[in-house]
Design goal:
The complex is a heterodimer of chains A (529) and B (338). Chain A has 529 residues and is α/β, with parallel strands linked by helices. Chain A has 22 helices and 20 strands. The chains are: A alpha/beta (529), B alpha/beta (338).
Chain lengths: 529, 338
Amino acid sequence: MPRPGFVLEVDRSTPPSLFWRGENFSLEKLPAGRSRVIYPPEPLPAIKDIDGAIRNALLNPIDQDPLPSLLFPGMKLTICFDDVSLPLPKMRRPDTRQRVIEAVLDMAADAGVEDVHLIAALGLHRRMHEYELRHALGDRIYDAFHPRGMLTQHDAEDPDNLAVIGETPHGEVLEINKRAADSDLVVYVNINSVPMDGGWKSITTGLASYRCLSAHHNGHTLQNTRSLSGHREHSALHQSIWRLGKVLRDHGPKLFQIETTLNTDMFPEQFSFIATREWEWSARERATYLATTKALKRTPIKLARKIFHGMEGPHQMTSIQAGETSAVHEITLEHVYRQQLVPVEGQTDILTMGIPFVCPYNPDGVMNPILVMCMGLGYLFNMYRNKPLVREGGVIIMTHPTYRDFNPVHHPSYIDFFEQVLPDTTDPVVMGQKWEKQFAEDEWFRHLYRTGNAYHGVHPFYAWYWGAHGQQWAGKVIIVGGDPATVRRLGFTPATTMDDAFEIASDVVGRAPTITHLHVPALLVADVS
Amino acid sequence: MGDKRSLTVAQLRRMAKVGDVASSAVQATLKPVRALGFPYRAPTRPKGVVVPEQPSKLGADFDTDWARKAPARAARKVINRGPMQALVQAIASPEVVGLDRLADLKELDPAPAVIFAPNHYSHVDTPLMITSVPEPWRSKLMVAAAADYFFDKKLKGTMAALALNAFPIEREVTTRKSSDQLRKLVDQGWSLVIFPEGGRSPDGWGQEFKGGAAYLAGRTGAPVVPVFIDGTGSIYGKGMKRPKPGKTKVVFGAPLWPEEGENTRRFNSRIEAAVTALGDEALTDFWTARQRAANGTNPKLTGPEFNGWRRQWALAEQRKLGKAGQRRRQNRRWPDLG
């Protein structure tokens, strides 16, 4: 029986806590008597008969007819799936998407459907490499569909391949992939790692155009998104997406949403110390930690990245539900919360967090400074329900080397963003008004997005907007171990050690602040009362 | 003349005497040994007693228990991972696909024993399977081998048991004794490779599946994993004098269990259909094979109905689509034109 998550009050006998530092780790001693550590729940057991569960979900959907009854000869079937940003780290083969899509294709073949098209729902993310598509879909599907042009990746900048579905009363235009819009049935295969994903967000962002996305992916909306992981009514982003979802439901193609959740068994056996509570580390885990950290210190950064990004997580499916999008998503959220929710009492003065080597926007790439901000203030800060873990005006301390390093293939526009936009302003609204259009319409960035493996020119803005609420909320953000000049460019304060960081934070929160450490990953959502 | 004869007689007598002396010397030497008698020597048979004939230790009765003991397993591990792997790589260059279909079984603790049911074109199939089956099954894998072919001589049977962990099984009917033995072994976690066709293809096309694998699955409760092997027929097919190196592909399918109330014949048909679909997948792609499987139009492994040259002609066409069509590039010698 997996143990639930819990909050540890740090006392003098508490061992130091584990922090990620990019492609390495450190152990940091937190002050006794006023610190606490939030530990995530242990991984839930995976479904025993996964293929059976998939079949069952397709045959007994929620508020929708069984999938076989929606399939008929001569129809146009489009299957869309989440891209490489999920799950993290990548899961061991076979990937959930492969299993589900093979089951859908089985039924399509039995029904005599011939016109089947698979689309990677990228949104403005980078196109997946062949090896990533093969990993997500399996060699069988790739070899059968890709050579015939029946497996494509969504292109948000292809005017000939986009169709307007309608407009919300708020003036938001829903424009999505034309093939999907013209289909008799669209099946969406999703992996829900965090509560903010899934539901109407799957199609209205994954298959949308830049014009459509910019309606809600902007500084103003994200500053007013006060709950990415909790109540949707407090999230301006989700409000907008749900409005677009209504347009899609009323005027778009017929949809069959398939959502899956995974457990948090994220790291392979050799890295078991990451998920183990420090006082339960065995001699082997202590030795592994020492060997790993010391070896990584001496490892060239490129090799260290290769090792970490090559890691395959043993996480496995804990639930699958299919049918009508809204109804399906509510059940999905229950399963996500069952795995990730930890009740926490009250807010804190200082929130500490280790930033890992990966975030949703750099699989197999570099965690550049903008993504460090996005991961810390956009993702980890937002992993709460009700209210943030840190009080308004409090301090957020992250640990990460924050090197000034970019992947020019994946993140070309991030380089210009760092060099041009950040020296000018770090305010999301100001940069949106002043700079966004120039990046979004840059022909070279557009070309790289459409034909190479680059994120869209506007993507660094979106990554920055993602942290807008956290940026506004925190009184100070400190990065321990980061390159000082780079950290300052982000608008944050550099510190050499954790003690230095506490000293610097005392200017804002006083000499004896309360501290909360978010022990992630594994993922958790703090239910703050 | 008479003198000559008397001389000859004398000589003969002398020779006989020498012979007697020698014989008695030998007898004297052997006497102590003979004195030891039974059980150091074979027992003598009393007159008028009929000794019952010893049951044969060959064929299906060949004892292979020793081949599953630790010393033989250790020796086999060395053989399989050393020379056998190298040999398979050298002559068959296998491409193994579909192992992800076994991921769920592999995750179970302990991973259950499995019956692998591949098609059979060549003697290369057995070492190819042994080196392609993934762990944890590979280290506890037996091969069902034709009792009348592999176990008809003691040395041959011993070599087959040692190197392949071969288990003798009748081609036509799986006897209750064999199946009881196999059930015991499966309960102990031993997986099995069984070629449901019962023997190598005589003409390069497949043969109808016999019910052995389906029957054993029913008796043992082990899942059957259909496997399609492509390309071995043109490497060392039946009747070929020496192997001709080439490329091969091994496609593993999803495990199958007998359904509630399904008899051996129906389950066998399902296994055959699964291997047929995998064969189609190996030559075309997953989606085409899956669509044809839904319509029941996967090309049959047994080939076209007609006989004679047209059948061979069709075989050549079919081989061009598969791995046999991707022959290794020969080292060409260009003429020296000065």
